[in-house]
Give the backbone structure.
Amino acid sequence: MADIKKIATRDSYGNALTEIAAEHDDLIVFDADLASATKTGIFKKAYPSRHFDCGIAECNMMAAAAGASTMGLVPFVSTFAMFAAGRAFEQVRNSIGYPHLNVKIGATHAGISVGEDGASHQCCEDFALMRSIPGMVVMSPADDVEAKAMVRAAYNYHGPVYMRFGRAAVPVIHDADNYTFEIGKGEVLMDGTDVAILANGLMVAEAVEAGRALKDKGISACVVNIGTIKPLDEALVLDVAKKCGKVITCEEHSIIGGLGEAVSSLLSEKMPTPVRRIGVNDEFGHSGPAADLLKQFGLCADHIVEVASQFVG
Amino acid sequence: MTFEEKKQLMATACKVRMGVIEGTHAAKSGHPGGSLSAADMFTYLYFKELNIDPKNPHWDDRDRFVLSKGHTAPGLYAALALRGFFPYEDLKTLRHIGSYLQGHPNMNETPGVDMSTGSLGQGVSVASGMALAAKYKNKDCRVYTLLGDGEIEEGEVWESFMFAHHYKLDNLCVIIDNNNLQIDGTVEEVMSPYPIPEKLRAFGFAVKEINGHDFDEIEAAFNEAKATKGVPFAIVMKTTKGKGVSYMENQVGWHGKAPNDDEYAQAMSELKAQLAEVEAM
């Protein structure tokens, strides 16, 4: 896969905001002194009067965005996932979620691929926190193409949305010319019958690579991108679970409260199916290069192949 | 303000206070103390200050009011009902299952409520975001928000004050109800926010200190607020918690407790007497 183009989804986010802003005056952006990192700086350069830096004060930022949305604007609010979902959780819950306001949270630097900054900044709990808020849409794109389409879908949707973007460059696996995105719809990337591998975010490219390796080992994997964690594409999950009889979930998130738990809950109630969850195993991360950390925490194709082989074998 | 206008406001304030007692008595819970301390402010806002239309609560160009101290919803609801947003009799459904009058304000259920609040410190941030958006959209509407003096112990409040000054939100008017009491005691005993005006000035606000039970002072403060350009405005109003009901005044225990039947009868009789006195003026 050496010749495949890699782009960080935070860059996709900044570029998509800038594109959509050209068409819609009601799109404004709030950031908390991280515009250069969240890439809302790309938007700021193009539309300085529509970018509002809130300083290092995320709680006020979330509630201020809620206020702006009641005035008919569509605020996109950005900071690192740790502060968007973590520090400002209660503002998101009470001032955005409870009144179901039209605020879009673009959280970046999620998961352990934040790398060298270490555990204090490696948010592996954001899906869990945001999923627990009634009416909140929770999404995590696999690549540049999906990320851009997701930002546009979030703009067009009326209601609160949480999107998670990554710091690290990830392979572009979609063909932009033949791609459509719909909130709440998963996507079968590789068909198979022995095991269903459901992934999101940077784990999608790993799952595809694992699917190819498994094929060489004679295991037929059905690889599915679940870009929207909430609302979950229940029909698709049940369909592939029924077809394969075994399900593996892969996410750069705690195994508690994220995709793995959403899928397990659905299956245990509607179609009991053996599940293996690949994610961060209820532990904190630590400093190191992103690629090394992902391997160390088993968030890589090799580990998916290992788990799938044992599971199916 | 003419004598007749002031008399009318004083009479309405008595009725707002009666609405607070009706609601909390019927709910057997709720927060009468801070609702009563702010009753004159609620009255002035909804009967004189705010540019609103009860027949069209979602009118785009209306002034906004955010009750940052959301627990004093009984006072807000009474003012809204008297102003014609919904029937006064419905105040008795406060906090009941199925009622649109939730324990804390819900913008999606109650006509006239501009923001859902209740978790302290957030409403003022929301109001500053509204004021920012109004400027972005070149709207002339103004944004008002009412906070408790205990509420400003929340750090987010000071984040929002920095934001309001940074973005020169002169269309924002912050009102602080300085009744000096919070749940665990006086604000000085619990966690002193004093000196409030000096802190606000240090955060870049133009500040007016008033008696929150005097309509002339309230009017003068709002006029000054509207004339102030380039910086946000704050009104720090000294009030009496529980104002208008003798046994509740300055009693910390009446922060979040409803009157029982006997207490209800006494409160209503006192307020009716005050109303009769005003009407005889």
User: Anything to note?
Assistant: Residues 247 and 267 of chain B are 8 Å apart (CA to CA).
